[in-house]
Specification:
Elements: E1 26-30, H1 31-48, E2 54-60, H2 61-78, E3 82-89, E4 99-100, E5 110-118, H3 122-127, E6 138-147, E7 158-163, E8 171-176, E9 179-185
Parallel strand pairs: 2-3, 2-5, 5-6, 6-7
Antiparallel strand pairs: 1-9, 3-4, 8-9
Helix pairs in contact: 1-2
Length: about 190
């Protein structure tokens, strides 16, 4: 049975906290639930890419790269995928230039762009830029948390949690080392 939590988006945290979590933050995901969401998305990737030999996982800077490494670990556990992991660096507020951690040939391969939170779609849109110089088989997007304020025509294929928020609220994904510790709303 999956526990059901009622989210209180005002001031009081409504999820049980784990060691190391700040009681003053309004957590919408705990570490345990984030791990469950990532595992579910790994199974979705496996299902939607059956028959593929290799996936390119492209994590967007800090949190997105941590999530990408977790997805790589989970895909190795549950499937028979070869994965190549790269990081994308860009200014999320004013994305112009996108820098890849290493050069990879993505021709005729599946690329999954991974970020922590999707809001307007701008970051995901600009993160696609380096892959447009190639001819990938398909490009998919994965986010741990999706907000509902789309301004660009990019919709993630894999979503851990979709949250309706106001424009003034912000969601932060907390990572420590290789662990996703949770996500909170401010």
């Amino acid at each position: 049975m999956i526990p059901i939590y009622f989210y209180n988006f005002r001031h009081e945290p409504s999820l049980p906290t784990q060691s190391g979590q700040d009681m003053n933050k309004n957590y919408i995901l705990t570490q345990k639930i984030a791990e469950q969401k990532m595992r579910r998305m790994a199974y979705e990737i496996l299902e939607n890419n059956a028959g593929e030999k290799e996936l390119i996982l492209a994590g967007i800077r800090e949190s997105g790269s941590v999530i990408a490494r977790n997805m790589q670990r989970l895909l190795k556990e549950i499937g028979n995928f070869e994965t190549d992991l790269i990081s994308l660096m860009l200014d999320k507020r004013y994305p112009k230039e996108v820098v890849m951690s290493k050069s990879v040939d993505v021709n005729d391969k599946v690329v999954i762009v991974i970020d922590d939170v999707a809001n307007s779609g701008r970051t995901l849109l600009f993160a696609l830029k380096p892959f447009l110089e190639f001819h990938p088989k398909k490009i998919q997007a994965l986010v741990l948390v999706e907000r509902t304020h789309k301004a660009f025509p990019v919709k993630p294929d894999y979503v851990g949690l979709s949250v309706a928020t106001t424009m003034q609220e912000h969601i932060f994904v907390e990572v420590e080392g290789e662990a996703v510790k949770g996500a909170w709303l401010e």
